[in-house]
Design goal:
Layout (H helix, E strand, L loop, with lengths): L3 H5 L11 E2 L6 E3 L29 E2 L8 E6 L15 H17 L4 E7 L15 H4 L12 H11 L3 E6 L3 E3 L12 H4 L4 E4 L2 E4 L4 H17 L4 E4 L15 H6 L13 H9 L6 H23 L4 E4 L19 H4 L4 H7 L4 E2 L14 H10 L6 E2 L2 E2 L13 H12 L6 E4 L2 H5 L5 H7 L23 E7 L2 E7 L6 E8 L2 E8 L4 E5 L9 E7 L9 E3 L3
Parallel strand pairs: 4-5, 4-15, 5-6, 6-10, 10-11, 11-12, 12-13, 14-15
Antiparallel strand pairs: 1-3, 2-22, 7-9, 8-9, 16-17, 17-20, 18-19, 18-21, 21-22
Helix pairs in contact: 2-4, 6-9
Length: about 550
């Protein structure tokens, strides 16, 4: 993510469908099983209603394929950037703010929340491994009052609204520079101080220490086991962004493509000397990258061992390895400074989605959004999801601000690339504030209709069981009674009004749904319902005659 100090100032407040036999004498008919969808976006462009090439009343009817696009937003808890808005809110107030965020995401037809659950070796949930974060109550180690489990609340409330919940972990930061609370007794800096290093005003776990790697892996897998999350997400904080002796923020320098002249090296001497004493042969930078690679591989393997359907995503800094960059791309090297070899992770398939932080404008000289996006797509030999991060919070920023049109155009550029199938906004504050009307513009344009999260067939391609659906014509529309089949997590519904198709997605908990008549086009004359599982695989559709 972008540096917290800079982010803080911005805060004011896709399956080809099988053919369905449309039987006039029956309410329901089933269709043949279809192949699971590909990971990349397919089907019509999301947005305006789709008009198929089949005339109304034709016996053989094929609805359009479901639109697919990952539409997500980061919700930061560090420094109270997005949630909770302040560290002194009670539990009820925190829950109200969470509901407001989820309602805004739902109303905008978004489909995923990336919630920061571990800001600085601490937790927004009850943990036996790390203390409660200070950003909930103002005091590290203190639970919210009245007591509740914030992560369990977020997961339940997100799923109730048809939103995925991805748990976002900071891998190695142990204390943020603006932290105010005293450190809790069970914080890693006190329970195992030898593996925590002071770096500028921050505390950082040393990635070269096996105990530090174990701490992060244990924390992540604990959450995977205990909570019904849809994804695990880690950001760009591996080794810290280099700082200067003056304390100049490394993240800010990196984003502006500046390089400190007198960078302070990370103080990992003890772990480095131990590696050499044990016979290590790598030079220091390669050793550091190996340490990060070890974490990435262990997380990917461990997460899928626990729950095969939980996605693992990473949001690295947006500029790639210098030796591989397109002509004209310049700036900070995460490969050399953060020791993050994101290209290798893609090559080895150690992640399910990559969200490179493409925090520059389309016309930015040296860091053009479209050129960077094409670079990361070109590195994706394993065909994982590419869902770039957008700096939406630059709208209304005091310096180098974006006009809302920049974000709108970046989404358009992303949609034009078959190798990219979604995006993530940084951060929720900009959408909650509707800065310069960005939320309204997205809702009226790119997000006019809902979309399914792209399927992830490399984690599983079994077609979910068909739901049971009963339809009844009522005065105001067609009422559906729904019951899930095996492995159902949501229902995808196509409704035809005359020659116009409309798409909807509803959570699997929905058992009663009214498809209302349209004031202009009248009653629906065709309805198709199919189930979607947690990996985005779709069942064969059920065709419903509703008129």
């Amino acid at each position: 993510m972008q540096c917290n100090s800079q982010r803080r100032q911005f805060k004011p407040q896709r399956r080809a469908l099988a053919l369905a036999i449309f039987c006039a004498g029956a309410l329901l008919a089933s269709c043949s099983t279809v192949k699971p969808p590909l990971p990349a976006t397919a089907g019509p462009a999301v947005g305006a209603p789709v008009r198929p090439a089949v005339a109304p009343g034709t016996a053989l009817l094929t609805p359009p394929p479901a639109p697919r696009e990952f539409r997500a937003v980061w919700v930061s808890t560090v420094a109270n950037i997005d949630w909770p808005s302040k560290s002194n809110l009670n539990g009820a107030q925190q829950q109200a703010e969470a509901i407001a965020i989820l309602e805004r995401a739902k109303s905008m037809h978004m489909n995923a929340i990336v919630l920061q659950v571990r800001p600085s070796a601490d937790a927004i949930y009850p943990s036996t491994i790390e203390p409660w974060t200070e950003y909930l109550t103002g005091a590290q180690g203190t639970p919210p009052k009245p007591y509740y489990d914030p992560l369990a609340f977020w997961v339940a409330q997100a799923h109730a609204r048809g939103l995925q919940l991805h748990a976002w972990f900071n891998p190695y930061r142990a204390r943020q520079t603006v932290a105010k609370s005293a450190v809790a007794g069970n914080h890693i800096s006190r329970s195992n101080p030898a593996i925590v290093k002071a770096y500028g005003k921050a505390l950082w776990m040393d990635p070269g220490e096996a105990a530090a790697v174990k701490q992060t892996v244990d924390v992540v897998l604990d959450v995977v086991r205990r909570y019904d999350i849809d994804g695990v997400h880690i950001d760009d904080y591996f080794y810290p962004y280099p700082i200067e002796p003056t304390g100049a923020a490394g993240e800010a320098l990196a984003l502006e493509s500046s390089t400190g002249k007198n960078e302070v090296d990370f103080p990992d001497g003890p772990s480095w000397q131990r590696y050499l004493a044990d016979g290590g042969k790598l030079e220091r930078a390669a050793w550091r990258r190996q340490n990060v690679n070890t974490l990435i591989e262990r997380l990917y393997t461990g997460i899928h061992h626990e729950k095969s359907w939980v996605l693992f995503g990473i949001s690295p800094f947006g500029l790639g390895k210098p030796a591989l960059r397109p002509k004209g791309i310049v700036g900070f090297s995460q490969y050399d400074k953060l020791y993050a070899d994101a290209e290798l992770w893609l090559q080895n398939g150690w992640l399910d989605y990559l969200s490179p932080q493409l925090y520059w404008a389309i016309d930015q000289k040296g860091q053009a959004y479209d050129v960077l996006l094409d670079y990361w797509i070109g590195q994706n030999r394993q065909q994982r999801h590419i869902w770039p991060g957008l700096f939406t919070s630059r709208i209304g920023a005091p310096a180098k601000e974006y006009a809302p049109g920049e974000i709108v155009q970046q989404i358009g550029v992303t949609r034009s690339r078959p190798g990219a199938s979604g995006h993530v906004h940084f951060s929720m504050a900009a959408l909650m504030d509707n800065r310069k009307g960005i939320a309204d513009q997205l809702k009226a344009g790119h997000y006019l209709a809902p979309a399914l999260v792209p399927a992830t067939p490399w984690l599983g391609a079994t077609v979910p069981g068909a739901p049971q659906v009963r339809a009844r014509r009522e005065a105001a529309g067609v009422r559906l009674k729904l019951a899930p089949g095996s492995a159902n997590s949501a229902y995808a519904i196509w409704t035809r009004y005359g020659s116009e198709w409309r798409f909807a997605v509803t959570p699997v908990a929905t058992d009663d749904l009214l498809l209302s008549d349209d004031p202009r086009l009248g009653a629906p004359d065709a309805v198709f319902v199919n189930a979607v599982d947690r990996l985005g695989n779709e069942s064969a559709p059920l065709a419903v005659l509703g008129k």
